[in-house]
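Usage

Read records sequentially. Each one opens with the input sequence:
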Amino acid sequence: KAGFKLLTVDVDDIVVEYPDTFALMQDLQAMGESNAALVRETNAGLRGLGRDVLLANEGIYRELHGGGAEREGIPATWRVVYMIGWTPGEGQQEPLARGSGELNIKDILEGGAKK
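and closes with the structure output:
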């Protein structure tokens, strides 16, 4: 609907190690991430998460995702989604018709182009 051409979507998963869930939550807060339901409750007069909930969270997250004795910290995976689109311009090259290429990407990925 917006008129973009040659749309591309790419995804990167980045795993970051944190010493504990408290450091992870500090990063989340610094990024502006929050729980909208919790914010609504806080505005209604509740105080947010108590110390007991945060300590339980630390233990449960470490148990589920900590990786045991070989890992000191806990992992958190960040998914970054890139979306690119171009608006048509006067000098913009048009894509070739599907199937008009001389090389097959499958052949290249399997170890070289076939002749």
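Summary fields computed downstream for this record:
- The mean pLDDT is 80.
- The longest strand covers residues 5-18.
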